[in-house]
Specification:
Blueprint: H1 2-11, H2 13-32, H3 37-65, H4 69-100, H5 104-108, H6 110-124, H7 138-161, H8 166-188, H9 202-232, H10 237-243, H11 245-265, H12 267-286
Helix pairs in contact: 1-2, 1-3, 2-3, 2-6, 3-4, 4-10, 4-11, 7-8, 9-12, 11-12
């Protein structure tokens, strides 16, 4: 996603956003008709690449379209609420679709949505100028991907291999080494992928830590809760979607007001309250026990 911002400056934000939508749509189509696991993985790689282009570019387009801070905050709140709307529709509709039509249609339904997004982008997003002098930090990108990849393998396979296994230790050591190399490269590179000087700002550092904690907590919950509800609670696929609905609705409704609340009370107070509420919610979920479900 960091590279997406740089590529947006090099090739133009609207063009990169369109490329991202095209990749996501193509990847969804491949997943929907995938005959085997290898094809499915390839399709998911395309959708991930497309999303990595879309997400930062869409925020950059918003920042350019709304120079006023208050208007930009409200626009980003609407942007976030769209993510929440996807959470409302996704788990609930996904459960219904998987239970009654088949899992392939989860991907196939994204194809017309991607085509519609392309049409809306062409008609509503103005062309942006390419900025000369920007370049992709290839060494930094390679090291970042290597670090995240080895760390992911270690945590995914660690429980199976054993934490004292040489393969697990090797992956963790490789992650540490590539992270150290990434920091050195970013310090010495003229146009780094991640300018480390931004972390001299306490606000940026605190916001980054908060965002990392929120992402780890929320995505872990979104991944594990459906498994828990199905495997432990015995819920149906459609039932899981309905039981995940309160999370999605809360995210959607609060995101609509987040920009206005941040403008009125300050971003620090809103972020603190949000993280505290999320922590309390995750703590409550950690106390869940196996019991019969109504769905």
């Amino acid at each position: 996603m960091l590279t997406g911002g740089t590529l947006g400056d090099i090739f133009g934000r609207r063009r990169l956003f369109m490329i991202g939508v095209a990749l996501f749509t193509a990847g969804s189509l491949i997943c929907g008709i995938a005959p085997d696991n290898a094809t499915m993985i390839a399709g998911r790689m395309l959708t991930g690449l497309g999303a990595a282009f879309e997400m930062p570019t869409s925020l950059a387009i918003l920042s350019e379209a709304y120079p006023d801070a208050a208007q930009r905050a409200r626009a980003i709140g609407v942007w976030a609420s769209c993510n929440g709307l996807a959470w409302v529709v996704g788990p609930t509709m996904g459960g219904v679709i998987v239970g009654h039509i088949g899992w392939r249609w989860i991907f196939l339904l994204a194809v017309p949505i991607g085509l519609l997004a392309s049409v809306l982008c062409l008609g509503g997003v103005p062309k942006s100028r390419c900025q000369n002098g920007r370049s992709v930090d290839a060494p930094g990108q390679i090291l970042a991907v290597s670090m995240l990849g080895t760390l992911s393998v270690a945590f995914i396979e660690g429980p199976h291999w054993g934490w004292s296994n040489l393969a697990t230790i090797g992956c963790l050591a490789a992650a540490v080494c590539t992270f150290a190399s990434f920091v050195i490269v970013e310090i010495r590179t003229e146009r780094p992928l991640l300018p480390l000087t931004i972390f001299r700002s306490r606000a940026v550092s605190a916001a980054s830590v908060a965002a990392a904690g929120m992402t780890f907590g929320m995505y872990a919950m979104l991944f594990l809760m459906p498994l828990f509800l199905q495997a432990v609670q015995g819920a149906s696929v459609a039932g899981v979607g309905l039981q995940m609905l309160p999370v999605s609705l809360a995210f959607f409704l609060v995101s609509l007001k987040s920009g206005r609340l941040a403008t009125r009370f300050g971003a620090r107070l809103i972020m603190t309250c949000g993280l505290a509420l999320m922590g309390l919610g995750l703590l409550a979920l950690s106390r869940s026990r196996a019991q019969p479900t109504l769905f």
